[in-house]
Design brief:
single chain
Protein backbone atom coordinates (compact mmCIF):
# COMPACT_ATOMS: atom_id res chain seq x y z
CA UNK A 1 0.00 0.00 0.00
CA UNK A 2 1.51 3.36 -0.97
CA UNK A 3 2.29 6.02 1.62
CA UNK A 4 1.30 9.68 1.41
CA UNK A 5 3.50 12.24 3.12
CA UNK A 6 1.85 15.63 3.58
CA UNK A 7 4.23 18.52 4.16
CA UNK A 8 3.30 20.85 7.04
CA UNK A 9 0.45 23.27 6.32
CA UNK A 10 -0.39 25.97 8.90
CA UNK A 11 -4.11 25.10 9.11
CA UNK A 12 -4.77 21.68 7.58
CA UNK A 13 -1.72 19.77 8.84
CA UNK A 14 0.46 21.92 11.12
CA UNK A 15 2.84 19.05 11.85
CA UNK A 16 2.50 17.39 8.46
CA UNK A 17 1.23 13.83 8.19
CA UNK A 18 2.22 10.38 6.94
CA UNK A 19 -0.31 7.65 6.21
CA UNK A 20 -1.03 4.72 3.90
CA UNK A 21 -3.67 4.91 1.19
CA UNK A 22 -5.17 2.15 -0.93
CA UNK A 23 -4.26 1.97 -4.58
CA UNK A 24 -6.84 3.64 -6.87
CA UNK A 25 -8.20 5.87 -4.06
CA UNK A 26 -8.34 9.58 -4.88
CA UNK A 27 -5.85 11.75 -3.03
CA UNK A 28 -8.76 13.84 -1.71
CA UNK A 29 -10.49 10.80 -0.22
CA UNK A 30 -7.23 9.68 1.38
CA UNK A 31 -6.68 13.12 2.91
CA UNK A 32 -10.24 13.31 4.25
CA UNK A 33 -10.05 9.75 5.61
CA UNK A 34 -6.96 10.80 7.56
CA UNK A 35 -8.57 13.91 9.10
CA UNK A 36 -6.99 16.43 6.74
CA UNK A 37 -9.99 18.59 5.88
CA UNK A 38 -9.18 19.34 2.28
CA UNK A 39 -11.68 21.68 0.67
CA UNK A 40 -13.76 20.15 -2.11
CA UNK A 41 -16.49 22.67 -2.89
CA UNK A 42 -17.81 20.83 -5.96
CA UNK A 43 -18.29 17.53 -4.14
CA UNK A 44 -15.22 15.96 -5.79
CA UNK A 45 -16.50 16.03 -9.37
CA UNK A 46 -13.60 18.06 -10.78
CA UNK A 47 -15.68 21.23 -11.27
CA UNK A 48 -13.61 23.59 -9.12
CA UNK A 49 -10.02 23.95 -7.96
CA UNK A 50 -10.45 23.98 -4.18
CA UNK A 51 -8.79 20.57 -3.69
CA UNK A 52 -5.63 21.56 -5.59
CA UNK A 53 -2.40 19.93 -4.35
CA UNK A 54 1.19 20.04 -5.53
CA UNK A 55 2.73 16.58 -5.93
CA UNK A 56 6.34 16.98 -4.82
CA UNK A 57 7.20 13.30 -5.29
CA UNK A 58 5.41 10.56 -7.23
CA UNK A 59 3.64 12.74 -9.81
CA UNK A 60 4.35 10.41 -12.74
CA UNK A 61 2.74 7.46 -10.95
CA UNK A 62 -0.72 9.09 -10.88
CA UNK A 63 -3.44 8.54 -13.46
CA UNK A 64 -3.32 10.79 -16.52
CA UNK A 65 -4.49 14.38 -16.29
CA UNK A 66 -7.79 14.86 -18.14
CA UNK A 67 -8.84 17.89 -20.18
CA UNK A 68 -11.46 18.95 -17.64
CA UNK A 69 -8.97 18.74 -14.78
CA UNK A 70 -6.45 20.73 -16.76
CA UNK A 71 -9.06 23.45 -17.37
CA UNK A 72 -9.98 23.60 -13.68
CA UNK A 73 -6.34 23.73 -12.60
CA UNK A 74 -5.97 26.98 -14.53
CA UNK A 75 -8.15 28.54 -11.80
CA UNK A 76 -6.08 27.22 -8.89
CA UNK A 77 -4.10 29.56 -6.67
CA UNK A 78 -0.36 28.85 -6.76
CA UNK A 79 -0.45 26.53 -9.78
CA UNK A 80 2.78 24.54 -10.24
CA UNK A 81 4.00 22.17 -12.99
CA UNK A 82 3.13 19.19 -10.75
CA UNK A 83 -0.28 20.43 -9.59
CA UNK A 84 -3.30 18.13 -9.55
CA UNK A 85 -6.88 18.25 -8.36
CA UNK A 86 -6.78 15.82 -5.46
CA UNK A 87 -10.30 14.59 -6.27
CA UNK A 88 -9.21 13.50 -9.75
CA UNK A 89 -5.72 12.15 -9.00
CA UNK A 90 -5.75 8.46 -8.07
CA UNK A 91 -3.11 6.58 -6.12
CA UNK A 92 -0.94 4.04 -7.89
CA UNK A 93 1.74 1.88 -6.23
CA UNK A 94 4.28 4.66 -5.68
CA UNK A 95 4.55 6.74 -2.51
CA UNK A 96 3.57 10.41 -2.76
CA UNK A 97 4.75 13.59 -1.10
CA UNK A 98 2.22 16.42 -1.22
CA UNK A 99 2.25 20.13 -0.57
CA UNK A 100 -1.12 21.67 0.26
CA UNK A 101 -1.27 25.23 -1.09
CA UNK A 102 -1.61 27.87 1.59
CA UNK A 103 -4.66 29.41 -0.07
CA UNK A 104 -7.56 28.21 -2.18
CA UNK A 105 -10.04 30.02 -4.36
CA UNK A 106 -13.42 28.94 -3.02
CA UNK A 107 -16.03 31.32 -4.40
CA UNK A 108 -18.82 29.45 -2.59
CA UNK A 109 -17.14 30.13 0.76
CA UNK A 110 -15.83 33.65 0.25
Amino acid sequence: MPTITVLPHPELAPEGAVFDAPQNMSICDALLLNKINMEHACGQVGACSTCHVVVVQGFDSLNALGDNEEDMLDQAWGLQPHSRLSCQARMAQEDLTLELPRYTLNHAKE
